[in-house]
Amino acid sequence: MLRLQAPLPERYIDADDANAARIEAAKAALGDRLFILGHHYQRDEVIRWADACGDSFRLSRLAQQRTVADYIVFCGVHFMAESADILTGDHQQVILPDLDAGCSMADMADLDEVVEAWDGIARVTDIERVVPITYMNSSAALKAFVGEHGGAVCTSSNARAVLDWAFEHGDKVLFFPDQHLGRNTGIAMGYQLGDMALWDPLRSHGGLAEAEVKEATFLLWSGHCSVHQRFTPGQIADFRERHPDGVVVVHPECAHETVLLADRVGSTDFIVRQVEEAEPGTAFGVGTEIHLVNRLATEHPEMTVESLDPMVCPCSTMFRIDAAHLAWILDGLVDGKVRNLITVASDTQAWAHVALDRMLTIT
Ligand code: 13P
Ligand code: SF4
């Protein structure tokens, strides 16, 4: 992986108490000029300082609404910070505490590959009837592509509404980069696996015959999340053996076979709500990133909350952001230095904004 983040100065390393004191002091000094957002997968040592936590959809909304803040420090991954930059005003600066915090799934589709796929699909079908939909977990360039080609962005909490909208505007969708979110949402809408074809960008014409492209209602990009594809039907069976009355709740980035056996499926905010609103004593088997699962278990001792995966499965890129990086960023802001600024070029911003706005008005 290409490393963008320079090592931190020595004084921030192994300095838990000092970093906590630095963050506290900087928050007090910066007041309303600072807004710290934390995705649910962040470490506890980061979440404790967040002004708001949420899933990607909620965080993008919050970033957009917080017009008084000069600095939005986004404790999440790169595509989230880019989206915040697109949605916030010109007077606001969006900062990612560690520039190496990317998303391996977002990296599975790039603009050249998507343009090549689009051109290939256009050669065999009426492209005017194809609606491109990109998952929030994608680069700003791909969001701009869908904006320019009549499509929209979706997140795990609104994929169904966005796909309903897409089928009001066309007969076929090209959905990227997460095949699982596309497949799971399509099935929930009543489509069959036979209505879907997998577009593999590494193969000529996606590895599909002309007839397959023509017949498919969903052309699903063959991207995935390495964290969520670890959850299996076998793990659900194990959980149910131990907790026959338990509830299995998984994220829609999990594979279709796993989602089929779950009781509930939804975004990270949805998963949090299931636990918060449950009867005390409920046992939850959760299929999502381990920091969120562990936090829910700690915050709800009246429930049993465990990961479906007995082997720990952190998101290694979310994990890059720690209190040390946050302290370094905030110290810089107090000194008037803006480090790790995330900026999306203005030509990309314009169309990406269209695609994000469509998403925000659909839901
Ligand atoms: P949410 O939008 O559900 O928080 O998901 C983002 C993500 O990256 C899950 O892996
Ligand atoms: Fe990306 Fe998966 Fe990490 Fe979410 S959990 S940020 S999809 S790698």
Which key features would you list for this structure?
15 helices, Rossmann fold, binds iron/sulfur cluster, 3 domains, 13 strands, 363 residues, globular, 4-stranded parallel β-sheet, 5-stranded parallel β-sheet, 15% strand, alpha/beta, binds 1,3-dihydroxyacetonephosphate
Tell me about this structure.
With 363 residues, the chain is α/β, with parallel strands linked by helices. It has three domains: 10-102 and 317-343, 3-Layer(aba) Sandwich (Rossmann fold), CATH 3.40.50; 106-225, 3-Layer(aba) Sandwich (Rossmann fold), CATH 3.40.50; 228-307, Rossmann fold (3-Layer(aba) Sandwich), CATH 3.40.50. It contains 15 helices and 13 strands. The protein has helices at residues 16-30, 44-47, 56-65, 78-87, 111-124, 140-148, 159-169, 179-188, 210-215, 233-242, 256-261, 268-276, 290-299, 323-334, 346-362; strands spanning 34-39, 52-54, 71-75, 93-95, 130-135, 152-154, 172-176, 196-199, 218-221, 247-250, 264-265, 283-287, 304-307. A five-stranded parallel β-sheet has the order 6-5-7-9-8, with helices on both faces. A four-stranded parallel β-sheet has the order 2-1-3-4, sandwiched between helices. A four-stranded parallel β-sheet has the order 11-10-12-13, with helices on both faces. It is globular, with a radius of gyration of 21 Å. Bound molecules: 1,3-dihydroxyacetonephosphate and iron/sulfur cluster (SF4). 1,3-dihydroxyacetonephosphate (13P) is lined by residues 40, 55-57, 137, 155-156, 225, 251, 253, 267-268.
